Amino acid sequence: MNLRRWLTPGIGVKRWLLLAFVGLLVLALGVAHLIRQATAAGAPGGLAADLINLVTLQFLPYQLRGLVAGASGLACFLYGSYRLVRALVDPFALWDRDQPMVEVIYQKRFLARGPRVVAIGGGTGLSTLLRGLKEHTSNITAVVTVADDGGSSGVLRSELGIPAVGDIRNCIVALADAEPLMGRLLQHRFPGIGPAPQPDPALPPIRDAQALSEGVGGHALGNLILAALVQIEEGDFEEGVREMNRVLAVRGRVVPATGTVLTLHAVRADGTEVEGQSRIARETNLDRVWISPEHVRASEDAVRAIEEAELIVVGPGSLYTSILPALLVPGIREAIAASGALVVFACNVATQAGETGGYDLADHVEALARHQADGLADVVIANNRFDARAPETWLGQPVRLRWPPAVQRPPRVVLDDVVDSDNAHRHDATRLAAAIIGAWEREGGRRRRPRELRADRELRADRDPRIPRAG
What we know:
By secondary structure, this protein is of the alpha/beta class. It is built from 19 helices and twelve strands. The chain has helices spanning 2-6, 14-41, 47-55, 62-89, 101-110, 123-133, 151-160, 166-175, 179-186, 209-216, 221-232, 237-248, 277-280, 300-308, 319-327, 332-339, 361-370, 429-442, 450-463; strands spanning 117-121, 140-144, 253-256, 263-268, 273-275, 286-292, 311-314, 342-346, 379-383, 412-416, 419-420, 423-427. The longest helix has 28 residues, at 14-41.
């Protein structure tokens, strides 16, 4: 495996080893020429003659001298080069020492040439997607929704006035190189508020154990770290997230859709209005969602990443509480439409009890259209395997393959086995990423032309009042 990695084209090591080898070969020829000149002037005697005979391998048969000299020199060169690189790099190494150095070089050099991908959404679906994508490219930007108001994120939001941090933490964990260890650390959740633990007589007394439980109870460590970085940056949420990306050296980066605290609103089909992401997630028959305040500023990092992207992936994730809140941030949807990147909508593999109960593929696409995202996606990826193992407490169902009977600008549909065979409620990270990259490669990495897209949107705006006229 290591040899195959070293021989991978474009890893940027072999060319310099070859150049160094050629340089040593020329140097050896020069030394041989000097020895020949010295011996031609007159045959030295004594110790000098013995030394020259030893260096030139005169004690071996003539036919073996070149072979032995070449093999010995090559072995010394390769081993010396390896030890030199390790000696120079090890003091600055930040990776797991059990990981071969060639794997680190492969990730930094080979994956750096991968496509520029922007993934938009939140929740478990987005973090699953990122785990798969980071094996294909390190040019990943995750644009994460910040409308969550429940759990630890909700408490920090109400107490510190910062946007939701839970989904950002999950995405950073997914992109971390040392994912298992970093995941256990950042996802560690302190015990909730309860009776103080009984002290062990053999250990020093625990001071203020109840106060500690009440202070951090229920919070994930990653949430607290991110909240602390925001405070260090004097309340600048976007800069706090940037610093967390730098501190943890993730493969890619995670940015919020906006640095403003958002409130999610929804209206059901019967006209009932609901407020708050945690409440909306439990509702049924949802018709439309919106955010407040309406005129928030999209993250500059998010807009810039979308403008420079070659591939934009929307979803997977909770449709009304993760995907749409990110698209509803002013500037995000417009940047997607104007970017010219290939846009892929990764449909969920299962319905979510409450907000998408009973939804099929057509319902997901039509929900995007109701929120002015009709025609935004060029490709829709949907699961076509329905025999995956269902969790015992699962209340959802597989998303069935029904296509909208009338779509103004129908995207291309790609059907693939992208479900986790052991959990019918989740995508398989590797399969989903492979399907998305495969679709991008089949399209030839082509970009849509924004001018044509705007003209198409204006034409459809005349037909469908739900789509605003561009400009």
